């Protein structure tokens, strides 16, 4: 099965969540569009057992850390959604998006259109900050407008019980995991949170 990791904003924790998902599901990893360095694929690979996962090359590896549509223009290319075919694997595939779900890939397509293109179930990462309730509810509204299946929400960062409560109330989505801010992420960190995620996955 394909799972698409998207978020309510940039730098929300998608790469950390993708790594945990790979460990929990013993899944492979693919980042269709990478804009700028360091590469998220390398970050994920460093925290997982390379004998147990496949890290597929990016469909587009762009040089500039910017919105994919802008980075592609700087590189003199146009991102074509039809060229981004999920790599073949016999296991679950974790597909990590770029930025938030309505970040443009080109003049017509958004990052979230990749989820539908890849026939993937969405996992939404929501970091908690002033304004995150609005951003989370708007994101869920955009996902539902596109009739995309959503597995659940992963909250990342310092806990805010009231923000979490109101988001859960209005979205009706299950919380798959809560990730407090990590001072240091190690292989053991990934293993520990993967075990916790497994407990909620089929609940």
UniProtKB/TrEMBL annotation:
The keyword ATP-binding applies. Keywords: ATP-binding, Biotin biosynthesis, Cytoplasm, Ligase, Magnesium, Metal-binding, Nucleotide-binding. Its main location: cytoplasm. Pathway: Cofactor biosynthesis; biotin biosynthesis; biotin from 7,8-diaminononanoate: step 1/2. One of its GO terms (cellular component) is cytosol. It holds the Pfam family AAA_26. ATP binds at residues 11-16, 40, 96-99, 184. Its cofactor is Mg(2+). The active site is at 31. It comes from the Bacteria. Its EC number is 6.3.3.3. It catalyses: (7R,8S)-8-amino-7-(carboxyamino)nonanoate + ATP = (4R,5S)-dethiobiotin + ADP + phosphate + H(+); (7R,8S)-7,8-diammoniononanoate + CO2 + ATP = (4R,5S)-dethiobiotin + ADP + phosphate + 3 H(+). It is an enzyme of class 6 (ligase). It is found in: Cytoplasm. InterPro entries: DTB_synth_BioD (IPR004472), P-loop_NTPase (IPR027417). One of its GO terms (molecular function) is magnesium ion binding. Mg(2+) binds at residues 15, 40, 96. One of its GO terms (biological process) is biotin biosynthetic process. Belongs to the dethiobiotin synthetase family. Catalyzes a mechanistically unusual reaction, the ATP-dependent insertion of CO2 between the N7 and N8 nitrogen atoms of 7,8-diaminopelargonic acid (DAPA, also called 7,8-diammoniononanoate) to form a ureido ring. Homodimer. This is ATP-dependent dethiobiotin synthetase BioD. It comes from Dawidia soli. The lineage of its organism: Bacteria, Pseudomonadati, Bacteroidota, Cytophagia, Cytophagales.
């Amino acid at each position: 099965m394909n799972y698409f990791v998207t978020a309510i904003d940039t730098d929300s924790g998608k790469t950390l969540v993708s790594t945990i998902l790979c460990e929990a599901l013993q899944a492979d990893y693919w980042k269709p569009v990478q804009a700028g360095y360091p590469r998220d694929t390398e970050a994920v690979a460093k925290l997982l057992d390379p004998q147990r996962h496949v890290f597929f090359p990016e469909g587009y590896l762009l040089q500039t850390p910017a919105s994919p549509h802008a980075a592609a223009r700087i590189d003199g290319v146009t991102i074509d959604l039809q060229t981004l075919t999920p790599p073949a694997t016999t296991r679950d595939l974790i597909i990590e998006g770029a930025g938030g779900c309505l970040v443009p890939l080109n003049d017509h397509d958004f990052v979230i259109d990749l989820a539908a293109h890849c026939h993937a179930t969405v996992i939404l990462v929501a970091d908690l900050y002033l304004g995150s309730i609005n951003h989370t509810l708007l994101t869920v509204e955009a996902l539902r407008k596109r009739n995309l299946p959503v597995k659940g929400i992963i909250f990342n960062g310092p806990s805010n019980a009231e923000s979490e409560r109101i988001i859960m109330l209005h979205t009706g989505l299950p919380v798959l995991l809560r990730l407090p801010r990590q001072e240091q992420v190690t292989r053991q960190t990934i293993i520990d949170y993967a075990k916790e995620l497994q407990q909620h996955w089929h609940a």
